[in-house]
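ASSEMBLY PREDICTION REQUEST
Request ID: AP-0331
Submitted by: J.K., bench scientist
Number of chains: two
Total residues: 657
Priority: normal
Notes: Please return the full assembly, not individual chains.
Input sequences:
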Amino acid sequence: MARPGTARQRISARGGRRLGQAGLLAPSSLWLAFFVVVPISILFLYSFWSSHNYKLIQVFTLANYRETFSDAVFRVVMWRTLRLAFLVTATTLVLGYPVAYFIARKVTQWKTLFYLLVIIPMWSSYLVRVYSWKAVLGEQGALNLLLLKLGILQQPSPIFLYNTFAVYLALVGSILPFMILPIYTSLEKIPASLIEASSDLGAGFWRTFAKVIFPLSLPGMLGGCTFTFVLVLGDFIASQLLGGPSGILIGKVIYGQFGLAFDWPLGAAMSFVLFAIVFTLIAIAGRFGALKEG
Amino acid sequence: MEQNGYQLALRGLTKVFGNGVTAVDRLDLSVRKGEFLTMLGPSGCGKTTTLRMVAGFETPTSGEILCDGARLNGVPPNRRPVNTVFQDYALFPHMTVYDNVAYGLRAKGQPRELIEREVGRALEMVSLPGMEKRLPRQLSGGQQQRVAVARALVNKPSVLLLDEPLGALDLKLRKHMQLVLKGLQQELGITFIHVTHDQEEAMTMSDRIAVMHAGRLEQLDTPEVLYARPATAFVAGFIGDNNLLDCRVMEVDADTARIELLGTSARIAAANVQGGLGPGPAVLAVRPEAIRVAAVLERADNVVEGTVEQHIFAGSEVKLLVRCPGGSVLANLRDQGQFHQFSRGDRVRVGWQRGDGMLLACL
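STATUS: Completed
Returned structure:
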């Protein structure tokens, strides 16, 4: 029999396929290496140097990390940012899941239209979307106008803008699609026959949802939560434009080190602390997801 | 059939889809208690839609579904006394075999000890003990199929619905599972309604077969009757090999129908003529095994002359395709030794008895 021959052929075919896969991955790998790994590595080096009078001193030091950890402002803002990230994630999850469910499992004819409605906001600039909240929450904004019209306020109030809540609103609004899309994808993938089988076996809607639909959409939820969380942690535009002093987020603090203070080493150190926190949280979430999937 | 001898009855069941396609057209069907009934037909004949209406996944446009005397129309799937084995098995991928099989009992809020006992028994029944902790993706196709059967049967349904359950298995496993399912059905005495497009599978497993075509029931009877006395040209062509010969009916009397075909005339017993068939175009269906071939044929009621066109060797059978004026006739040779007596181009006579074959209306 030609068994050994076919086995060898199979192995070489697999090797060929692996080569093909490497070929497909090469361009993006090179891109990532040159434009992500290299700059970040340079930044990592920076975090162990120091700066004096806007000049870089290339001598190894841990001072930046020491300063980052001992800086009360950093700690307060980091904590605020994490809290906000959790809050935005929870809110977009609660708001986004029903939307994703509706489009994936209830809409039959106009699926593309609904899908587009979710994506369309992302066609406009993020900056514009954040600015538009000023037009809503500002002293001459729509909210004040409404409250004046209703007689609830006698004169325009400035309290709606320049705080964490304004940042929260803007972030929820602009990040929501990133939560909806992965959940939509995972819900869409659930075969209709599984839901029919559940019903066939005597389960009502809520049991089917709890035992079949929800568990099978966990990967999508996990993906959406990760996106959302990371986007909030990295944001500085919403914080800058809507946050005021009480709405400063970690992104803005780091941005400040690079831009205003021109202390690149300290900014780099802060970035890597943030990086470590994000990485840890994603690793935990990933482990959780892996457990859930069995 | 007596009024209360059935388990499930369909009365004028009709399904017209939103796009105007009539999938099932005024279907009347009664399924006896404890019977293995197969709905057989080509894809698009409405058999799966019918099954889905019984399960509750499709709403009938009109007509009634009765089970144990109760009307099922409008009852949601989770409250129907039927369970389904799905074509793709539809096992819950995130649950173990045990959790899959226990799903229905848990949904009904059964006590834990009972669930454990019943799940164990169900898995034993399909010869899968010890697989409780596996996930569906860790099982072979045949094992997944058996889990799907156990998951449905553990609920002790009045009727088990099987939607082409063996379609995804390879031939050998399919043959094996046919016997397993048939054995289970006989052992448990549960009514099975099985949907397939594979006529051989239907013949092997079923007590009765409902042949469907274009949303309508063509014939409902035992495999033997369907084979020997097809009621329509469609059934004659769908079940087993058959010679469907275009012919013209000249006259029909109480004893005999006289027809013209293949350039000659022939006589068919009146008992083998489809009811209501009068003079005009028709189809004569004769099984290849009823056809005799010889250089000289003395003892055949009907004889046609032709030329040997093809020799076909198919293992247990040897076949001869004979070209006659106006059509070809396929004959299964009774005697394997006859095979070498003929060669291509030989002039032969083919013949059959007046009681062989059915004279049917054209499709």
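REVIEWER COMMENTS: The longest strand of chain B covers residues 302-314.
SIGN-OFF: pending second reviewer
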